[in-house]
# Entry
Amino acid sequence: MDSLALFFRSIFIDNMIFAYYLGMCSFLAVSKNVKTSFGLGIAVTFILTCTLPINYLLETKVFKQGALDWLIGADAAGVDLSFLSFIIFIAVIAAFTQLVEMLVERFSPSLYASLGIFLPLIAVNCAILGGSLFMQQREFPTIGEATIYGFGSGIGWMLAIVGMAAIREKLQYSDVPKPLRGLRDHLHRHGAHGDCLPQLLWCQDVTKAKTQRNEYNHYTRQCGHLPRGHTAPGDRPACR
# Structure
């Protein structure tokens, strides 16, 4: 595959957020501020770019069946260590996450404070682990293509979170119609990520109705009647 085509495909077509919904936890939690989102995007891009070539070498030189022929010769034909790949990939990602955490804390304390728990949680960010697993699945022929794929995937994830942060900042200072404020505003902003918006809004209405009924029941137990001007199905009218 052409390197330039692979790079742009990993950004726009195989985007970790919009195509595979990977890394959604930190995406939704951190995308409130453009500066913070950009910092996290840079960290994710750095880790993807560094871990994919290392995991590629481990996959092709150690884990695959027969990959150890450079070390033990013909006896490597029956050696298959692929069952170790998952845990070793996570270990490599965790090591680079620790490095990034120390660097951010040293050189940008404000960004470190803004990211909070989501910076060390990069170690279990499914977008980063997904990059290594996709590399394993697609069997890139060279380490260069694996590196390009990692870099492009990181750029795509960063553009997605920065774009969402810009939208959320704009909406925060915009004159949002009253029916769309609060939870409905939040759901409409993220409704593009699935078809669950009507169900979630319905759940909100049901929860509100249950809360109102609980308030009525509490009032009735305390006062012996419903609040004035309110009636509930199956209950007697409010006492005057």
